[in-house]
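Archive entry. Fields below.
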Amino acid sequence: MIKAILMFNNHGKPRLSKFYEHYTKDTEQQIIRETFHLVSKRDENVCNFLEGGMLIGGSDYKLIYRHYATLYFVFCVDSSESELGILDLIQVFVETLDKCFENVCELDLIFHVDKVHNILAEMVMGGMVLETNMNEIITQVDAQNKMEKSEAGIAGAPARAVSAVKNMKLPEMPRNINIGDINIKVPNLPSFK
Amino acid sequence: MALKIVKGSIDRMFDKNLQDLVRGIRNHKDDEAKYISTCIDEIKQELKQDNIAVKANAVCKLTYLQMLGYDVSWAAFNIVEVMSSSKFTYKRIGYLAASQCFHESTDVIMLTTNQIRKDLSSPNQYDTGVALTGLSCFVTPDLARDLANDIMTLMSHTKPYIRKKAVLIMYKVFLKYPESLRPAFPRLKEKLEDPDPGVQSAAVNVICELARRNPKNYLSLAPLFFKLMTSSTNNWVLIKIIKLFGALTPLEPRLGKKLIEPLTNLIHSTSAMSLLYECVNTVIAVLISLSSGMPNHSASIQLCVQKLRILIEDSDQNLKYLGLLAMSKILKTHPKSVQSHKDLILQCLDDKDESIRLRALDLLYGMVSKKNLMEIVKKLMLHVDKAEGTTYRDELLTKIIDICSQSNYQYITNFEWYISILVELTRLEGTRHGHLIASQMLDVAIRVKAIRVFAVAQMATLLDNAHLLTGNMQRNGICEVLYAAAWICGEFSEHLENPMQTLEAMLRPKVATLPGHIQAVYVQNAAKLFATVLKSQEGNTDGTVTQDTSQLMIERLPVFVQSANLEVQERASCILQLVKYIQKLQQKDVEVAEEVSALFAGELNPVAPKAQKKVPVPEGLDLDTWINEPPSESESEDEQPKAIFTKEEPKHSRARHTEVDEKELARRREARKQEQANNPFYIKSSPSSQKVYQETPGVDHIPVIQIDLTVPLKVPGLPMSDQYVKLEEERRQKERAEKKKKDKKKRKEKRSGRGKKHDSGPESEEDITPAHMVDIVTEEMPENALPSDDDEKDPNDPHKALDIDLDNLEMSGHRPLADSEKIPVRSHRAAEAAKSPVEDRDADGIATQLPKKKHGKEKREEKKKKDKDRERKKSKDEKKKKKHKSEEKDGDLLGAEVDEPVVQSEEPSQASEPPTSNSAEVSDLDFWLSNAPVPSNIQEVPKVAAAEAASAAEVISGGAQDSEPDEPKDAEMEATKPSKHKKKKQKKEKEDKEKKKKKHHHYHHHSDGVGEESVQNGTVEEEEEPLPSMSNYCLLAENSYIKMVYDIQGNLQDGSQVVVSVIFENKCDSFLKSMEFNVLDSLNSKLQRPEGSGPHDSLAVPFQLPPGVSNEARYVFTVQSIVMPQKLKGTLTFIVKTEESSTHEKLDFKLHFTCTSYLITTPCYSDAFAKLLESADLKSSSVRLEGVNMPFHHLLARICFHHHFSVVERIDSCASMYSRSIQGHHVCLLVKTSGQTVSIDAKCDEPMLLGNVLDEIKQTFSQC
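PREDICTED_STRUCTURE:
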């Protein structure tokens, strides 16, 4: 079982938090902070597994994380999950994000956290891995987005126009500030699937 | 109004959406909180509007704020509103918000039940999907209970996308509503073989999660998983299955043997590291489970260790980490094979990666020996010095202590060294483990008597330098050590060189800043030291020292008397008064030392931590009975006027007390003493504890080697344990040299002179003698302590509730679920289901539905029968022995005691069901496990079972010949018959042909009949190869005289009637007459009897049977509910008439009303069929048949024939079929075939009926 999925940047700002077990919101924030603290002080070329989170888990739980450009992706899992499998899952997740956002960068995720949630929901459900095939995930996400678009129809057009205008005005549109691309072609881990 | 709407939508355009919010927050970095609070106000305004789009937008923003840690629980109701929007866009936003912020105590959750149910059954798969995803995050016990049935239906949804989600969410449902596990399990199991890999993977996932917590219940699935493992190519599924096997093997070592080979193959063949790693892990688990029985797996161990070494040496840190992790598992059972890689592991201790160092530490634990302990600990101490992070350093500290103290200090040869290590560890700043060090100090000082002198000296120094430990308030944790130091110094003060100095150290004003519990120990032990000082000065006529000591105490103690801590205050004032009194006596020159030290006389023995728990309850003591009569209700409360109490009560009790005179008291005291003396659990005063010491060789008897004081007495803060290493080295060398001299003769003597514990410990590679002769006092346990399991399960563990025996469930389809166990269905049909009769269920419970599986009960029955036969006919016995070779062994054992269990199982009760069927299941598993070749055995099961059944039948007939008509167990025997069915099929076919003349209008038994049916719409081409002959008649019962086969057909005219046609065949050479047919009615199904006869009367068969003749009789049954199959018990009685005599015989049987038998072949045209399918109220379900090796038209013909369907349309390898139940339910099938796989998608307006029909279809094809 996956207990939680967290995403935060190099400064510990949460970009996504998904808890599959209930915690109070204060505990959740503490967990994010603690996890960031644990993960961020680790060197770049050490292993991606980490024990010793106090708040989340216990001896049975592990933090499995990957660091891409400005973002940390952290999965908190118990012993029923395969460590290397979860690492691959993170890779699949990031690659899926990359496909869905076309060259994803941190700003995409900041501004579209709901979409990230929707993509994640096609991969992991209630703490259990639902789908690991990237094409299948993308198909389902696209189909749902298409449906959303068709529902918005003509009524949605002005709103979209407005938001386009709003976006134009603003100086800090994504990619103007180069927070860094997550161009993830991580070499290790020979073929999982 | 219209204006308002327009205005609303224009407003909406300029509302902040999520992006605006995020942008805003980023632009207000300085006053983020303020900005967000204004945003929240805006959101609150938006939520008040009617426009759902505005609300959804607001909720979407709230979801973001929730992530940032803001409380959004106040919007829960609005979230529900958005969830219930008809638009997918908003619905998704709503469910996302709900999944992020709802939890079990959110009260609006109960409002969502109906909305979720609606969404689950939505025609749009994404509505369903979104609802399932959301539900998986916030499912509550109530939701789980109410929706379990809906979700279960979705498990058979046509879309794999929904199926996989439904399967996965079932795990959450099980957790919240454990009652749903039993009813849902068969379907879950079915999904393991779903055509869609995603669904399959989900099912594997769920079962693995379940099995991880309660593996024993899933042992019977091992063959299925084994099949999956050998066939699947999906690494995710493989990993899960292999992990599952890892959990199962400890329960069943034979499984391990079976697994080794395929796993080894996988290890060699796979390129995926993750899979390789899991394989190695499971092989290790297997090896562990086998380690006791099978020594000869060194090849596998070598393979594992080799592969792990490769992983550890890999440059990828992840693999290194996992390699070490797996290595530690091998270590437990095969330490030798790991120890050869010590170099590698020590190398990992220097790794820059903390996770890896921690893992290497774990490994070290198992690698120490007497020889290398000091060396390893030295290395660790170096790491302690280097480590910056407190977590890692604390981990090191606990590891050092663990390593040293493991198995009762087995590896420590020099306790002085250990004490100095402990003292060195106290220098650690900010460690959390002060109490750990303290308890080690106490433990060693108490249990190793020889070390006390040294320990006391060390502790005294520690106390003297207490300021070094407490100087910094951050070092808080470590001051626990002072607790131990103070106690040791006090308790063993006779060993102190300078008690006066230590006393002074303990009474320093600074002590008052220590935590209360430590101060208390200080005060108490100061008193002990005081006593020691007095005693040491006893002979001394010059009283100044004692006077000074008393004065010191009196001066310093008042600080503690003022302590805020109760304990400290109380002890301090007691002792202060005591000292004052003593001072007075001293001034009068009275010798007080003796009396004062008597206060602290006696020694404390270590008591095992669980000693109290293990005290057995003495015989005859019932802890639950009242000691006094419980106060009765009426007496206790207000009703009783108070006057009565005050008047009467005291008088009464006082009167009683005065009656007891002195003599009586003396007598009682005597009796009590007597009792105490006899009671082993009463803690007696000194004699017993002294006895303990006499038994263990006391300190005095042990030759204590003089401590070599080349080591200067140490100041904390200076590492000195290193010197011990050198010293030890030298000592050992010296010893070795000495030993060489003495060796030949004196070895034995030397051993006997050594301390007890060390003798019993395994003699390590090289006889390393401890530096001191050490006596480790074992911890005391109460006499006859009960051995008990220590690691009890956490009672709050949600998985505990899921510990449900599932085997019996598989045995007979889904039938033996009690009504109470069924998932509540929210519809009027629930009432119908509730009617389902009790007897009926019981009958089902006893019978087997799957012929290939044998009931354990029957087996016992067989054995019993055998035993009886053996007594009577020994000649026959031998023949049987051959057949039952395998069972014979326990047959003898069981024979004697078999009577009782059989009688028990006679009672048709649900309760008796699980164990019996379980044993049958287990025997199946046994069979699978005991069979070496893998692929063949799956097919072999039915064969062997059939053979067994056949022999059982033979036994029965033997029994019948012995003419015991009243044999009550006959009923049970019948259950074995269906399994015989298969074998006899061929024979029956022939018979059927003969009986063609007597054929009935609904009696289709060979190709002609089938032909007629399947051509109904002219879609089945006739020129296809001829069909094999088929018969719907199945065996009802049989003995040496008569054989009964039967078929059940629905009655078109009457929706509540079915007709059972029974063919009776006379098998013997005698005339059979006066046959009477009777069936035990259930609430649901009744045999129609002629008017006037009672409900239990039997019906006469309207013919007699000459030898070799068969005839058919028909019986009409009325049934109420047709959605479930059921079984009815019945009996046929008849008279066998031979030339000389006639005997009365009886044959029991069980009528199986399948759901198929309620279906009537009804033609349907394709347009009507299409219309029917369009009507929304049909529930769908699907089933997949594997390995069906027959032409498609044969397949269709079989479905038509056995299950009363008609073909509506057939296009290539796809056909639609239709049937109708006697109560008018429509059943539509879409049968598709590709290769050997047949998938059947089905729709019906009664899901239960459909499920059962599909099961029966599946079974039909599994038999051929």
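CURATOR_NOTE: Chain B has a mean pLDDT of 72.
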